[in-house]
Write a structure and sequence with these properties.
The protein has about 70 residues and is an alpha+beta fold. Helices cover about 30% and strands about 15% of the residues. The chain has a domain of about 35 residues. A 3-stranded antiparallel beta sheet has the order 1-2-3, with helices on one face. The two termini are about 15 Å apart.
Protein backbone atom coordinates (compact mmCIF):
# COMPACT_ATOMS: atom_id res chain seq x y z
CA UNK A 1 0.00 0.00 0.00
CA UNK A 2 1.46 3.36 -0.98
CA UNK A 3 1.11 6.71 0.71
CA UNK A 4 1.12 10.12 -0.89
CA UNK A 5 3.00 12.97 0.73
CA UNK A 6 3.29 16.57 -0.33
CA UNK A 7 6.72 18.16 -0.15
CA UNK A 8 7.48 21.85 -0.45
CA UNK A 9 9.38 22.58 -3.64
CA UNK A 10 11.27 25.73 -4.56
CA UNK A 11 11.24 26.64 -8.24
CA UNK A 12 14.05 29.08 -8.92
CA UNK A 13 13.89 30.76 -12.34
CA UNK A 14 17.28 30.91 -14.02
CA UNK A 15 18.57 33.99 -15.89
CA UNK A 16 19.38 31.88 -18.96
CA UNK A 17 15.89 30.33 -18.87
CA UNK A 18 14.34 27.33 -17.21
CA UNK A 19 13.97 26.49 -13.54
CA UNK A 20 15.99 24.74 -10.86
CA UNK A 21 13.89 22.77 -8.36
CA UNK A 22 14.97 22.01 -4.79
CA UNK A 23 13.22 20.72 -1.67
CA UNK A 24 14.06 22.18 1.76
CA UNK A 25 13.08 18.91 3.49
CA UNK A 26 15.02 16.65 1.14
CA UNK A 27 18.36 18.22 0.16
CA UNK A 28 19.15 15.32 -2.19
CA UNK A 29 16.34 16.49 -4.46
CA UNK A 30 17.68 18.94 -7.01
CA UNK A 31 16.76 19.02 -10.67
CA UNK A 32 15.85 21.42 -13.46
CA UNK A 33 13.62 21.89 -16.45
CA UNK A 34 13.09 24.12 -19.47
CA UNK A 35 9.76 25.32 -18.02
CA UNK A 36 7.90 24.96 -14.73
CA UNK A 37 5.91 21.93 -15.87
CA UNK A 38 9.02 20.04 -17.00
CA UNK A 39 10.88 21.03 -13.83
CA UNK A 40 8.07 19.65 -11.66
CA UNK A 41 7.94 16.40 -13.65
CA UNK A 42 11.70 16.06 -13.26
CA UNK A 43 11.30 16.67 -9.51
CA UNK A 44 8.78 13.83 -9.36
CA UNK A 45 11.20 11.55 -11.21
CA UNK A 46 14.08 12.62 -8.93
CA UNK A 47 12.01 11.90 -5.83
CA UNK A 48 11.14 8.44 -7.12
CA UNK A 49 14.84 7.76 -7.77
CA UNK A 50 15.79 8.94 -4.26
CA UNK A 51 13.15 6.73 -2.63
CA UNK A 52 14.24 3.75 -4.75
CA UNK A 53 17.93 4.30 -3.90
CA UNK A 54 17.19 4.52 -0.18
CA UNK A 55 15.20 1.29 -0.32
CA UNK A 56 17.98 -0.50 -2.21
CA UNK A 57 20.49 0.67 0.39
CA UNK A 58 18.13 -0.44 3.19
CA UNK A 59 18.09 3.11 4.53
CA UNK A 60 14.93 4.68 5.93
CA UNK A 61 13.19 7.60 4.36
CA UNK A 62 13.91 10.86 6.15
CA UNK A 63 11.51 11.57 9.04
CA UNK A 64 8.18 12.70 7.69
CA UNK A 65 7.80 15.50 10.24
CA UNK A 66 7.07 18.51 8.11
CA UNK A 67 5.78 16.44 5.20
CA UNK A 68 2.06 16.94 4.64
CA UNK A 69 -0.17 13.98 3.92
Amino acid sequence: MSQIYKLPLVLDPQPEGGYVVTCPLLPELITEGEDAQEALQNANDALAAIVDALRQLNKPLPPVAGWMK
